[in-house]
Specification:
The chain has helices at about 15-65, 110-115, 120-125, 150-155, 345-350; strands at about 80-85, 90-95, 130, 130-135, 200, 260-265, 280, 300, 305, 325-330, 335-340. A five-stranded mixed β-sheet has the order 7-5-6-10-11. It has one domain (about 15-350). The relative contact order is 0.14. With about 350 residues, it is α+β, with helices and mostly antiparallel strands. The longest helix has about 50 residues, at about 15-65.
């Protein structure tokens, strides 16, 4: 009687298994960069959309009020800058030379004032109160945007999604390390406050720092010129635009399609409180995406620290975590991507509104 041959289920040999694993590994290695690139493209599209919405909100505000939204200083000390933009000179004068709002300076910035144009009317209403918030005073009574009221504190911690860049989410969202809410300016500091990944363009004047000496006049003006607490400035937003009643569109004589309105920033600077007149603007006197983490001015005994006095002024520039550059909204409402490699003089020129520089479309 013949025996039937034994049949068994075929299996992978060790060599075959290793080959399959190697092929899978190669496929993953090939696909992973494409997946990461697709994710970054989606993040960039979201970020660009946020900037476009902010720009449109600012332009709609201008249509209704006939000027761009203002910033009210959080500091009511007895001196501000009397600025001559044409000669790029300034001098400190008594604040009363220009006057202050009858209710005092509330410390709020332009982002807070465009909330109704971002479909955030309920949040705006929580800020716009008689004798408090927009109707209050930051210093002395501390009833402005630093009012120590539980309901108001909940409001300032509310984080609109339009202020978050997806590529900067490790720093975005409400935080307690954002000046001036992290300091004694706010009762009970540190105070949780919403942050912004987008800041208004304050131009190319310096911010309390000495730029690299060479080449002279390359990084910022020589002699040094600043205007962030002045009655006028070279950009679109700065800490004291309340003095002049905000910039007007007809004053952007360099061209609305060639002038920055808003650009990307990061709350890692410790100075990106969304509602503060000191946290909603940045300057181009600092290189785009300046690497503060490796700069000697920012290295403390425990490593990089943006709060070091030598670092604090230099970190006021625009930055992003998109590879290769950052998004900017122009004053005509369009959004463009500016490469890290941009010539710094051209970068500065795009931040001034009426200096007459000629900028190539390339």
């Amino acid at each position: 009687m013949k025996q039937k041959a034994k049949t068994g289920c075929g299996g992978f040999t060790l060599v075959e298994l290793l080959v399959v694993i190697a092929i899978i590994g190669i496929l993953v290695a090939l696909l992973l960069p494409a997946i990461q690139a697709a994710r970054e493209a989606a993040r960039r599209a979201n970020c660009s959309s946020n900037l476009r919405n902010l720009a449109l909100a600012v332009l709609n505000y201008h249509d209704q009020h006939k000027h761009f939204p203002i910033d009210e200083d959080y500091y009511s000390g007895n001196s501000v800058m009397d600025v001559n933009v044409a000669s790029r000179t300034f001098q400190y004068v008594p604040r009363n030379n220009f006057g202050v709002p009858p209710e005092g300076l509330d410390g709020g910035g332009w982002i807070a004032r465009v909330l109704p144009y971002l479909e955030e009317q309920p949040l705006y209403d929580r800020f716009n109160l008689p004798q408090h918030g927009f109707g209050g005073r930051w210093q002395l009574t501390r009833t402005g945007m630093n009012w120590n009221d539980p309901t108001f504190r909940q409001a300032i911690a509310s984080q609109p999604a339009v202020l978050n860049c997806p590529s900067t989410m490790q720093f975005a969202g409400a935080r307690e390390d954002q000046y001036p809410f992290s300091a004694g300016e706010a009762i009970g500091a540190p105070v949780l406050v919403a942050t912004t990944c987008y800041k208004g363009n304050a131009g190319d004047g310096h911010f309390e720092f000495d730029p690299p000496p060479q080449p002279p006049g390359f990084w910022t003006y020589q002699p040094l010129f600043q205007c962030y607490i002045g009655d006028d400035c070279v950009g679109m937003f700065w800490r004291a635009t309340y003095i002049r009643g905000g910039v007007k569109l007809h004053e952007v004589t360099d061209g609305t399609s060639k002038t920055f309105l808003i650009g990307e920033a990061s709350p890692e600077d410790g100075n990106s409180a969304a509602w503060s007149s000191d946290g909603d603007w940045a300057i181009t006197a600092v290189q785009l995406n300046w690497d503060w983490r490796t700069a000697g001015e920012c290295l403390g005994p425990n490593g990089p620290n943006p709060g070091i006095r030598t670092c604090w002024p230099r970190i006021r520039g625009f930055r992003s975590y998109h590879p290769g550059g950052a998004h900017f909204a122009l004053t005509d409402g369009s959004v463009t991507f500016i490469n890290d490699s941009i010539n710094h003089l051209a970068y500065r020129a795009m931040s001034t509104r009426q200096q007459g520089e000629v900028i190539s479309d390339n």
